[in-house]
Amino acid sequence: MIVFDLRCSNAHVFEAWFASSGAYADQRAQGLIRCPFCDDVTIEKAVMAPNISPKGGRSAGLPPEAMKAALQALAQAQQAALSNSEWVGTAFADRARAMHVGDAELATIHGQATRAEAKALVEEGVPVAPLLLPVVPPERAN
After folding, report:
1. What is the C-alpha to C-alpha distance for residues 10 and 121, in angstroms, rounded to an integer?
2. Are 129 and 82 contacting, i.e. CB atoms less than 8 angstroms apart?
3. Angle (nearest 5°) at CA 81 between 62 and 116
4. In this structure, which long-range contacts are made by residues 106-111, counting pairs with CB atoms below 8 Å and at least 24 apart in sequence?
5. What is the sign, positive or negative, of the torsion defined by CA atoms of 11, 22, 33, 37?
6. How far is CA 69 from CA 61, 77, 119, in A?
7. pTM for the predicted model, two decimal places
């Protein structure tokens, strides 16, 4: 596996993993690589800093226990932030838009939106943000 920093024609930089340099070239030629921010298919490799291992071959990353603890802390923080938020499921885009234009009372909500719906909300100036971790809908919770 190989990781590349990529840049779209709108100057968004993102990271993507490929089986090889050839796999990247093939996918790019077929228009299969898209910017996750604007869906642009005009993609080029961005300048990357080299990945140099620390002296002695030690890993520069967090040990697995520390990574697990960090993810648990992030999950707890997200759960706390959502504790006063209403799950609206697939009605998220409609509810967020209605609140933004004044057709619905303001409330803190979270739910699901397609990439196209989220992009449209952002373009309309509706204040939305993706959650960092997936959320289990209440009807699926144990």
Report:
1. 19
2. no
3. 90
4. 108/84, 109/85, 110/82, 110/85, 110/86, 110/135, 111/87
5. negative
6. 14, 12, 33
7. 0.55
β-sheet bridge partners, residue 111: 89
Contact yes or no for 48/14 (Cβ under 8 A)? no
Q: Which residue has the tokens 């373009």?
A: 123
**Which strands form 13-18's sheet, in the order they lie side by side?**
13-18, 2-8, 43-45
pLDDT in tens, the chain (142 residues): 788 889 999 888 888 888 888 889 999 999 899 988 888 999 999 876 666 666 665 555 678 888 888 889 988 999 998 999 999 999 999 999 999 999 999 999 999 999 899 999 999 999 998 888 888 788 776 6
Say if residues 18 and 1 touch (Cβ distance below 8 Å): yes
**Look-up: residue for tokens 């799950």?**
87
Residue among 18, 15, 25, 20 at smallest CA distance from 49: 15
3-class SS at 95?
helix
Query: Distances from the Cα of 107 to the Cαs of 85, 92, 130, in angstroms?
Result: 8, 12, 17
Q: Rounded to an integer, what distance in angstroms lies between the CA atom of residue 88 and that of residue 96?
A: 10
